[in-house]
Amino acid sequence: MGTTKNSSKVRLLDLSRTVARAGRVPSGIDRVELAYLRELLSIGLPFYGLIRTRLGYLLLDTRGAAVLFAAVDSGASQEECISCARAVAVARSPRALLGRLLRRRFGSGLAYVNVGHSNLTRRVLRAVKSTNGGTATILLHDMIPLDFPHLQRKGRAREFARRMRRVSRHADQVVCISLAAQERVAHHLARFGRVPPILTAPIGAEVVLPDGAALPPDLNLSRPYFVAVGTIEPRKNIGFLLDLWGEMDSKAPGLFICGSRGWGCEDVFGRLDAGVANVTELAGLSDPALSALLSGASALLFPSLAEGFGLPPVEAAALGVPVIANDLPSLREILGNRAVYLDVSNPYSWIEAIKAHEQSPPERDSQAFEPPAWEAHFKMVFTVT
Fold it and tell me: Alpha helices of 118-218 — where are they, by DSSP H?
């Protein structure tokens, strides 16, 4: 991707999240960690991967990281990926001896990079900083657990706050993926005592070629339909869309909800199980299949209550698909005028917009919106790490 080759330090990419979530449909954060792994494999400079397991830590060299990436890319399960990592690891240690492992393996110039919000433990950060000149670069996607604790799993906000205190104390560089996210990151880290240098570098969004053959063969796409993408959890606000479809009559367009079931939405799960007229739940679609479904949609619907970036609407806009979204600062920052922004406190404005797009969808123009590129992101980040 043309990344600047800063060879002054050996990079150590934390891959704990990639292994922990192996075998699942990747979330937005998962995609970012995989993009970093793919990029480091492509630029030809030596790097290492760090993986936390139940038994301790595994250290992979570039060759081992390539083997692990192939396993993850093939759909291997978490257990299979852990076994793979153990087989190719060049070193391992109990958790308490991680610092000694890193000091022995890396004399100086270690640049630890964590982009998955995982494994941000005091032990890891102290171990990195115990090496001669070791630095920690942490990518923070958002501060949603602190800004919207009521939308989180029980205890999530408290644990996230602990992680952010560690970032405030130990990080040498923080990377944010939007100016909107940067503002919230700076606000909260200041509360914890120290704001490290912050670099804002929007993440990339890649257009996946549509493959209609990858869609379920019995899917009826003969009439207008809309698509919602994202894990079904409270902040994604899928219940709001079910309410809209309940308000519309039986002639309402189709709605495809594409995302795995998360947590805290038992009422939504119950409604989906009971059946909502003209609504179909589709989980586990491949990227080419989802791209094909989106390409034929009247619009992507995105009523999310909070986002640090918002990959689904960015990817939809890159395909030339109209976007109807909740009015969030991060979406306006990235999408500009390529979306229709509506407040979720006014459901009838959404119904009117849906009917308008159903009856007279805007003309497609995939050339009008160019999403942020990974090349620019990596050039910025790897220049300072």
Answer: 122-129, 144-147, 156-170, 179-191
Host H or E run for residue 139: strand 135-140
**Pairing mode, strands 198-200 and 225-229:** unpaired
Taking the CB of residue 287, how many other CB atoms lie within 10 A of it?
Answer: 17
Contact 181, 143 (CB under 8 A): yes
C-alpha closest to that of 140 among 193, 197, 98: 197
Name, in order, each residue with C-beta under 8 angstroms of 331's C-beta and a sequence gap of 6 or more: 302, 307, 310, 313, 325, 339, 341
Phi and psi torsions of 17, nearest 5°: -70, -40
C-alpha 61/C-alpha 218 separation (Å) is 45
The architecture that CATH gives domain 212-359 is: 3-Layer(aba) Sandwich (3.40)
Amino acid at 234: P
Beta bridge partners of 108: 132
Q: Is 10-205+373-384 CATH 3.40.140.10? A: no
Closest CA to 19 of 266, 64, 343, 257: 64
Query: Chain-centre distance of CA 23, in angstroms?
Result: 16
Total Cβ atoms within 10 A of residue 381: 23
CA 187: distance to chain centroid? 22
CA torsion sign for 145, 146, 150, 155 is positive
Give pTM, 2 decimals. Answer: 0.92
**All CATH 3.40.50.2000 domain ranges in the chain, comma separated:** 10-205+373-384, 212-359
Computed on alpha carbons and rounded to an integer, the radius of gyration of the chain in Å comes to 22
What residue has token string 């799960």? 269
Contact call for residues 300 and 357 (beta carbons, < 8 A): no
Cα–Cα distance measured from residue 82 to residue 16, given in angstroms and rounded to the nearest whole number:
10
d(CA 98, CA 109): 17
pLDDT at 357 over 90: yes
Q: In the beta sheet, which residues pair with residue 341?
A: 325
State phi, psi for 266 to the nearest 5 degrees. Answer: -60, -35
CA 130 – CA 300 distance, rounded (Å): 48
Q: How far apart are CA 31 and CA 204, in angstroms?
A: 10
Confidence tier at 4 by pLDDT (50, 70, 90): very low
Whole-number percent of the chain with pLDDT over 90: 89
* Separation of alpha carbons 84 and 80, rounded Å: 6
